[in-house]
Amino acid sequence: MSYKTSPLTEPVYDYLLKTSLREPDVLRALRAETERHPHGGMRICPEQGQLMRLLIELTGAKAALEIGVFTGYSTLSVALALPHDGRLIACERNAEWPTVGQPFWRDAGVEGIIDLRIGKAAETLEALIVEGKSGAFDFAFIDGDKKNYGVYYEQCLTLVRPGGLILIDNVLWDGRLIDATDTELATSTIRTLNEKIHHDERVSISMLPVGDGLTIIRKRD
User: Fold this and answer.
1) Residue 195 backbone class (left: φ over 0; alpha: ψ -120 to 50; beta: rest)
2) Tens digits of per-residue pLDDT, 113-165?
3) Buried/exposed 144-160: b ≥16 CB within 10 Å, e otherwise
4) How many helices (H) and strands (E) does the chain have?
5) Exposure check for the chain: N or C terminus, fewer CB within 10 A?
């Protein structure tokens, strides 16, 4: 037993991966390819992808949203956990980045599940709401531009069904949130959203020290 989360030293982290990570070969290959990308540090960690797949299995999710694709590692993680008749709408503003992952999506046999939409995510999500898709999704993962996190949260809360999950990445923001002198827009936005979600009675929450911090949100019935 422990009264607080154990420190995750490099040896302990290596042990965690060695004894718990079940990363399909195609995901491992995409992760290696992403690490060679100039912005490779933007990808999620493999244990986070595995947690996301487990949550999708636990909830029986079929319709999912992703805000922020990058090279598509998280996209592939989600798509692999969805059923064959599932659907993932993946929003990305940079048209070049997802081209890294698309061959891996194809190799994994999930390319047909992934509906990649290039453009501003807020506009894509708003269009879905206008189309009458409110409550039509079971799962959403927010990992896009941080200054719009608050907008994405409210849009996903509309689009996800009661009982559905919203996951938000980078909620610890490399420890910068506790520095009151850090007033950068991205930092301030995440700080404000964390405080808002903490008191939001529309949802149940758990913030976990996974990767750069991951908040798991369940939309209440």
Assistant:
1) alpha
2) 999 999 999 999 999 999 999 999 999 999 999 999 999 999 999 999 999 99
3) bbbebbebbbebbbbbb
4) 8, 7
5) N
Q: Give the per-residue pLDDT at 156.
A: 98
Write out the H or E segment, with its range, that includes residue 18: helix 10-20
Select from 179, 204, 197, 33 the least CA-distant residue to 103.
33
Residues 6+ apart with CB under 8 A from 55: 61, 139, 165, 167, 216
Tokens representing 127 are 């269009």
Reading the block at residue 87, the tokens are: 């659907």
CB 76 within 8 A of CB 101: yes
* Angle (nearest 5°) at CA 24 between 81 and 88: 30
User: Dihedral angle at the C-alpha atoms of 206, 217, 195, 158, nearest 10 degrees?
Assistant: -170
Give the model's pLDDT for residue 2. 78
**Mean pLDDT across the chain, nearest whole number?**
97
Question: Does the reported pTM lie above 0.90?
Answer: yes
